[in-house]
Amino acid sequence: MPRWGMVIDLDRCTGCQACVVACKAENNIPFSSPKEAARKRIISWMSVLPMMEGEYPELRARFIPRPCMHCDNPPCVKVCPVGATYKNREGMVAQVYTQCIGCRYCTNNCPYTLKYFNWYTPEWPKEMEKYLNPDVSIRNKGVVEKCTFCHHRLQKAREKARVENRPLKADDYVPACVQTCPTEAIYFGDLDDPKSVVAQLSKGPRVFRLLEELGTEPKVFYLTEGEWHG
Amino acid sequence: MSLKRRDFLKIMGGSALSFSLLDCTSGPYHSSLRKDQWSPMIENWVQSICQACPGGCGILVRVVDGKAVKIEGNPAHPVNRGRLCPVGQAGLQVLYNPDRIKAPMKKIGSRGSGEWQSISWEEGLETLFSKLKELKNSGEAHKLVLMNGEKRGMMDEIFERFMNVFGSPNYFGDDSNMSLIQAFYLTQGIDNLLAYDFENSNYILSFGSSFLSSWPSPVQSMRAYAFLRQGRPGKKAKIVQVEPRFSITASRSDSWIPVEPGTEGMLALGIAYVIIKERLYDRNFIEKFTFGFKDWKDKDGNTRSGFESLVSNRYRLGPVSETTGVSVDTIVSIAKEFATNKPSVAVVDNNSTNYSNGLYNALAIHSLNALVGSIDVLGGVLAQRKVPLQNLPSVKIDEATRKSLLQPRIDSSENGRFPVASSTPSLIPDNILKGKPYPANLLLLYKSNPVFSSPNSEGYRKAFGKIPFIVSFSSFMDESTQYADLVLPDKTYLEKWQYAESSPVSKISVLGIGKPALENLFNAKPTEDVMLDLAQRMGSSFAGYFPWRSSKDFLLYKIDNLFRARRGVIFADSFEETQLRLLEERGWWVPQFTSAREFKDELMRKGGWWDPAYGYGVRSFVFRSPSRRFEFYSQLFKEKIEKIAEDLGKGSKDKKEAFLNNLKIEAKGDDVFMPHYEEPRFKGDAKEYPLYLYIYQPLTLSNDHGADQPWFQEIMGFHLNMTWESWAEVNPHTAAELGIKDNDLIWVESDYGKLRVKAKIYQGAMPDVVSIPYGLGHKALGRWAKNRGINPIELIPTEFDELTGLAARYSARVKIYKA
Amino acid sequence: MNRSILGRIKVSSSRIFIFFGGAILLIIVLAVILGFDWGGVRQPIAFNHKIHAENDLECLDCHPYYKEHASSGKPTLETCLSCHEEPLGESKEEGKLIEYIKSGEEIDWERLYRVPEDVYFSHRMHVIIGKIECNICHGDIGESSRPPSKPLKITMNKCMKCHEEKEADNDCIACHK
Question: Per the structure, how many domains does chain C have?
Answer without folding.
Answer: 2
